Amino acid sequence: MHPRCMIAALAVLAMPSGAVRADEPVRGPDAAPAAPVASAPAPVESNPAGAAPTAATALPKTEVKLAQAPAAPAEAKAEPAAEAKEEKPAPKYTFGGQADFYFSTNFNNPSTGLNGASVFDIEDEKGPHLGLLEAWVQKARDPVGFRLDLNWGPTGRLNNFLERTLSGNDVWDHVQQAYVSVNLNKSGKTYAEFGRWLSPTNAEVLEPVNNWLYSRSILYGFGSPFTFMGLRVYHYTNDTDYWMFHVNQGWDNVTSYGFGPGGGISYNKAISSKLTATANYIISNEPSASGRETVRNYLDLVAAYNPSDKWNFTGNIDLATQAGDTWYGVSVQAKYNWKPKEYFAARAEVLADSNGFRFAQASGTTVATLTLGYGRIITKNFQTRMEFQHAFSDTNLFAKSTAGTFRGDQTRFLVSGIVHF
Q: Are strands 406-407 and 409-420 parallel, antiparallel or unpaired?
């Protein structure tokens, strides 16, 4: 069994578990989070999610400018010197952080005390439970900068599960990202980053403050990589569109465990002011279900559509193949901005695992979830969310109240709080 798949075992004894990620976290306290479609830092001050800003997703006026964002070339304007406005330069250093807590009640009353098909919110009752405690610092590239994200709590441990299992070293439980960033041209639109960084894939990110729902999708947790250690190069063709190329140690791997390197390519394009699309392709040598080194191919497609101030949508498609194993799925999300500080969100998804590799099952397994949520901004540094989720599978994947017994579905309710700055 692939060690990554053992996370599900934590979530199911009941089952295994599966960043960006979010190089530029949305730190706006007065607006609901935007969909994190692209993880690349934008070359201009804009919505770091890559989606078209709306009244509900634009950064608030009090937002600190993104430290890592290189400025776009200024257009020449024939204005009298007396009328020229002096702009304050972006700060060289920026800081931030968050802490999240949750309480989940599972109507199955699982004997394991764990929620099946869950990524980080795996604990049933006996809460509240700490999720992720994070602090980060970033230095703007001028021309050299860096990014450091430090983590504490169960989410950090699960995010680093494979590396700790392989190396026995838990230091990376606390170092989510650590990389140096260097401009390769004067405009800052071509730059390289070396170190550990969150995966550029998926429509969701590690930090719940930057997602619409507190829980993460099964596509995020079971179908895709969490982190990479390696070198990536970004090249922006304009203020919004970019290519990214990378070489790395493989999925969720820092120290390398004897398998060959991996690499990939990403392309992000703002198709219109309302629609942004991102494509990610990754190829690498990874341990298969038998433990042998085989080639894994992975394709991830993400789109964000913001048709109005009231509505936002995302779509995510994943497809992966490896040594006869195939997993593929789709996730769609919608957010309705009911009031300036309140919104409703929903996610529907399905992930098919042809041979049970990703869900650590003996045979093919298909899992689907439907999640309904409500979010409210309480203060500029605190927000809360409520979620109702029903998950079901074509195999008996979810623990029941009697020890050693399982069923094909699970319903649960979750309340969470997020402190951020």
A: unpaired
Token digits of residue 84 = 């020229």
* 3-state secondary structure at position 203: coil
Residue 187 neighbours by CB under 8 Å, 6+ apart: 43, 70, 73
In the structure, what pLDDT confidence band is assigned to residue 83 with cuts at 50, 70 and 90?
Answer: low
Tokens for 362? 């003996």
| 3-61+92-420 CATH pick, 1.20.1270.10, 2.40.160.10, 3.10.450.50, 3.90.226.10 | 2.40.160.10
Domain ranges across the chain: 3-61+92-420
Q: From CA 265, how far away is CA 201, in angstroms rounded?
A: 11
What tens digit of pLDDT does each residue of 197-232 get? 999 999 999 999 999 999 999 999 999 999 999 999
- Could you give the CA distance from residue 295 to residue 318 in angstroms, rounded to a whole number? 17
Of 221, 94, 110, 73, whose CA–CA distance to 146 is shortest?
Answer: 94
Work out the angle at residue 415's Cα, subtended by the Cα atoms of residues 413 and 418, and round it to the nearest 5 degrees: 150
Backbone φ and ψ for 246, nearest 5 degrees, come out as -150, 150
CA distance linking residue 334 with residue 313, whole number of Å: 4
Reduced DSSP (H G I as helix, E B as strand, rest coil) percent helix, strand, coil of the chain, to 5: 10, 45, 45
